[in-house]
Amino acid sequence: MAAFKPPVTVALTGASGAQYGLRLIDVLVKAQHEVWVMISKAAHMVIATEMDISLPAQPQRLTKALLERSGGADGQIRCFGREDWMAPVASGSGAPSAMVICPCSTGTLSAVATGASNNLIERAADVAIKERRTLVMVPRETPFSPIHLEHMLTLSRLGVVVLPAAPGFYHQPTCIDDLIDFIVARILNQLGIAHALVPRWGEEKP
């Protein structure tokens, strides 16, 4: 089996902004990382609504579909179901992995902030926090209520990176893909993964 760079876990939940999460998976694959994927039931509905595509829910079929979409190599993407408690992300003794929840619904935000762990996505985030691993959460909601803000403050104090899907415009975007790449680039920065999606501040466009 091909040797990939360390795994990154990507979870998509039911907030708007599925494009961010799927683009992140594609970029990680191209960067030769192994990618562990979880997509909630609500996220499947959002993907079908926002992108006019339908991804299978069954993990093996989903893995095949994402590999075909991203051009990844066999074994590079692993998908896990809602209650796949034998997945490596379900335990601190499993293989370490940085985790990104993108997009992150406010329901998931609440569950992680309170340690609910009712499904594999929430449990994987709980593991990342307790093991002091990198966890990036990308909420896409507006406006934020005091409840949302309190949960984000709680998570930030625990070392979680809260990175709202709020693209900037100083890179002079000319299409929606440029706005998507702005957020994906900021996520990659937090993961310490090199990229050329968006020039850094002070750098010229290529």
TrEMBL record:
Residues bound to dimethylallyl phosphate: 170, 186
Broad enzyme group: transferase
Record's catalysed reaction(s): dimethylallyl phosphate + FMNH2 = prenylated FMNH2 + phosphate
Signal peptide: none
Pfam families in UniProt: Flavoprotein
Annotated residues for binding of FMN: 14-16, 40, 105-108, 140
Keyword terms: Flavoprotein, FMN, Prenyltransferase, Transferase
Gene3D superfamilies with a match to the protein in the record: Flavin prenyltransferase-like
InterPro entries named in the record: Flavin_trans-like, Flavoprotein, UbiX-like
Molecular function per GO: flavin prenyltransferase activity
Top-level taxon in the UniProt lineage: Bacteria
EC assignment: 2.5.1.129
Annotated Flavoprotein domain residues: 8-191
Protein family according to the UniProt entry: Belongs to the UbiX/PAD1 family.
HAMAP family attached to this UniProt entry: ubiX_pad
Function: Flavin prenyltransferase that catalyzes the synthesis of the prenylated FMN cofactor (prenyl-FMN) for 4-hydroxy-3-polyprenylbenzoic acid decarboxylase UbiD. The prenyltransferase is metal-independent and links a dimethylallyl moiety from dimethylallyl monophosphate (DMAP) to the flavin N5 and C6 atoms of FMN.
PANTHER family: FLAVIN PRENYLTRANSFERASE (PTHR43374), FLAVIN PRENYLTRANSFERASE PAD1, MITOCHONDRIAL (PTHR43374:SF1)
Protein name: Flavin prenyltransferase UbiX
Organism, scientific name: Vreelandella vilamensis
Chain's gene name: ubiX
